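Re: duplicated header lines in exported structure tokens

Our pipeline writes sequence and tokens for each protein into one text file. With two proteins the header for the second block appears twice in some exports. Here is an export where it did not happen, for reference. First protein block:
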Amino acid sequence: MPRGLQQTLTDAGLLAGRCLLVFIFLHEGFGLVGNYAGAAAYMQKSGVPSLLLPAVIALQLGGGMLVAFGFLARPAALLFAAFCLLTAILFHWQFADRNQLLHFQKDLAIAGGFLVLACSGPGNWSFGRYFARPAS
């Protein structure tokens, strides 16, 4: 495969991967804003202080946009990986419940995707790459 085509496919894959990884978080972030009281109650029921809810919303919406646009994508991806691991441990630890086990495994898989993104970077089709280029 010609080098230029290979790079184009890599960059397209990284862009698509970034968008697919954060779609669920952007959607959920807007849902949390719309049902703030319900989300806060769910957190408290699970033993997590609802004081953390604004930080969760900021990560899901702000961090989601950073990853989607590829700006500060590596640090945002690391935050998302940690968030997914914490979510798995704090909310999906009842392995006797098959649904909880599935959510635990899903959170681990998404954390893995974010770790891959943190290691690989956002690719050339990103705002981060654009701003990193020296001015000519």
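Second protein block, exported in the same file:
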Amino acid sequence: MALGLRSVAALVFCTCLALTSQDVSAAEQPHEPWSVVCLETRGFHDGDTMTCVSGPEAKGTFVVRFAGIDAPETGQANWRVARDKLREIAVPGTLAECYKQDQYGRQVCRMKSANGNDLADAMLADGLVWHAVRFADEQTSEERERYAELEQRARAAKTGLWAQPEPMPPGECRQVRKKHQKCR
């Protein structure tokens, strides 16, 4: 049975609509958790993304997206401060505890210093990132409480990005940029 031009157009439209309306998180790939020490840290894109070099016998070189936090997007207020702080604290010897791959192919990891301190704690305490509550179900209850408390303390003290009257959350910035508008 032959389809008319309108039927084909409607079918193409519906297929395109279905493909573009899928949740991006559907592309995320949870995997068995693994840990590796970063022998080298580089490629600091912003305050929550970097590259870890672990050596070919381990996991090799991979891009890390920090679990539980969201840093200002490039060009937003304080993004360079957040990136520079991350560069300062994510040094060789940092432990990456990874549990999934995000839609951009980055490994989502908890990052810990050589002495076991969570690097996200430092970023939150300095008021340089938001607690990414949209991923709170991936955190332990202790992490959720600690991250929320650290962010609240930084807000109350007007530390870092909280010194601004109304800092724009990175998720809101990403939506604004999709409309070809500028973030603040």
